[in-house]
Each structure stands twice: as structure tokens, then as C-alpha cells.
Write a structure and sequence with these properties.
The chain is mainly alpha-helical and 247 residues long. It contains 8 helices and no strands. The two termini are 16 Å apart.
């Protein structure tokens, strides 16, 4: 009966490690996506708050290595490897909880930092030596159908480029050369006929919040599986140790 239970637990570890493999691929994919988004749309920002993507990639890679330990420990019935596997799962669980808490605690600070640095980026738009800033702003406004940071008025209020009332042509609903000239001097109802008046920070925030529920659900599921993995690994390790002592 004991042998049967051990076999069931070992198969459970194999199954869990397959799920961990999928979860690690998911974490790496999410981290890579966030890093791509950051490098594509926020390349002019330089903030330690934006390194969460790297942390997720590292945790995903560590989970891949840990799943290898779990499979090897179950196959060889090595108590030391199984306990090492359980310990690593605990550390990963704590790391994910720490990252989640950090994201929640510092999310308002991140918003302030991003808004400030986006406005600072406006000041360098179109200037020599800041081609990356210019291209990034053109791309984000074109892709997210937005204009400025909080609204299209940011170009007139916070940039040298828009002091005469101009906004980039990428703000226009139908982009053509010169379509953004003087639009910053118009009221919102009038400007809305030609350009997207919503700010890009608002658009980015809405995009992130629209995926927030999915990300939370995925995180809770991973944490639940990690805890189950710790319990099963400890049970198998204890069972292996007792059976060897008995022999």
C-alpha cells in the first residue's frame, strides 16, 4: 500500500513539474513581453521601477532548473534532491510574493515616475541627438491612438516642439504631412475632429489594467501549484527516507 502511495506521489511530482515547466515558460513569456514593451515604448525612461520584467524572466528560468531537480529526485528517489527541490520551491514562492507586494506598494510611485519622465521626454522631441526619443514618441502615439502624456495639450505646455501649437502628425486620425500644425491651440472638441486627444499615459494605463485580472489569476494559480509541490515533495522525501531506514 505504501509503495502504491509513493508511486502516486511520484507521478504527481512529474505532473506538477510539467505544469511548472508551462508556468515557467509563461513567466518568461510575460517578462519578455513586458521587456519588449518597455524597450519599444518606454526606451527613453530610465527607472529601477521598470525592472520587474527582468525579475520575472529570472524566476521563470529558475523554475525550469527546479523542475529538473524535481524530476531527477523523483526518478532516483533521492531524498536530498527532493528536499532541495522543496526548498527551492519555497524560495521561488517567497520571491513571487515579494515581487507581487513590491508591484502593489510601488505602483503609484511608478505612475508618478513614468509621467514625469514622459514629460521630460517631450522636451527633447525633435532635437538633434534624440532620434530615439522622437521615434519612440511617434510609435507610441501611432500605435495607441493617443497624443501627449495626459492630453494633446502637453505638446504646447511642456515641449519646445509644440510651443506654436503644433502636435506631431502621428497624433492625427488620418496622418498626413502637416496635419498636426496648430491643433494644440484648439479646444478639445475642435481638436478631436483631427487628432486623438487622449494622453498616451492614460492609454498605456488602460492597456495594463485590462490585463491585470488575467495576470493576477495566473500568479495566484502559480503560487497555489508551488505550495502543492512543496507539500508533495516533502511527503515523498519523508516516505523515501522512512522506507530506506526500514530496509
Amino acid at each position: 500500500m505504501a509503495t502504491c502511495c509513493e508511486n502516486i506521489l511520484k507521478y504527481a511530482i512529474f505532473l506538477l513539474n510539467f505544469v511548472f515547466f508551462l508556468a515557467s515558460v509563461g513567466l518568461i513569456s510575460i517578462g519578455a513581453y513586458l521587456e519588449y514593451q518597455k524597450s519599444t515604448y518606454l526606451s527613453f525612461l530610465d527607472s529601477p521601477y521598470l525592472n520587474t520584467s527582468i525579475v520575472l524572466i529570472i524566476i521563470g528560468v529558475v523554475m525550469l532548473v527546479v523542475s529538473f531537480f524535481g524530476c531527477c529526485g523523483a526518478c532516483t528517489e533521492n531524498k536530498c534532491m527532493l528536499l532541495t527541490y522543496a526548498t527551492l520551491l519555497v524560495l521561488i514562492t517567497l520571491a513571487l510574493i515579494a515581487v507581487s507586494i513590491a508591484i502593489y506598494v510601488f505602483k503609484d510611485d511608478v505612475k508618478v515616475v513614468i509621467q514625469k519622465q514622459m514629460k521630460d521626454g517631450l522636451k527633447n522631441y525633435g532635437n538633434d541627438g534624440y532620434d530615439g526619443v522622437t521615434q519612440t514618441w511617434n510609435m507610441i502615439q501611432s500605435d495607441f491612438y493617443c497624443c501627449g502624456v495626459d492630453s494633446y495639450k502637453n505638446w504646447k505646455d511642456d515641449s519646445d516642439f509644440g510651443k506654436s501649437g503644433d502636435v506631431p502628425d502621428e497624433c492625427c486620425k488620418t496622418p498626413v504631412d502637416g496635419c498636426g500644425q496648430g491643433i494644440g491651440n484648439q479646444n478639445e472638441n475642435e481638436a478631436d475632429k483631427t487628432i486623438y486627444t487622449k494622453g498616451c499615459f492614460t492609454s498605456l494605463e488602460e492597456t495594463i489594467e485590462s490585463n491585470e485580472t488575467t495576470a493576477i489569476g495566473f500568479g495566484v494559480g502559480v503560487l497555489f501549484l508551488l505550495l502543492i509541490g512543496v507539500i508533495i515533495a516533502c511527503c515523498v522525501g519523508r516516505s523515501v527516507g522512512e522506507s530506506r531506514n526500514y530496509v
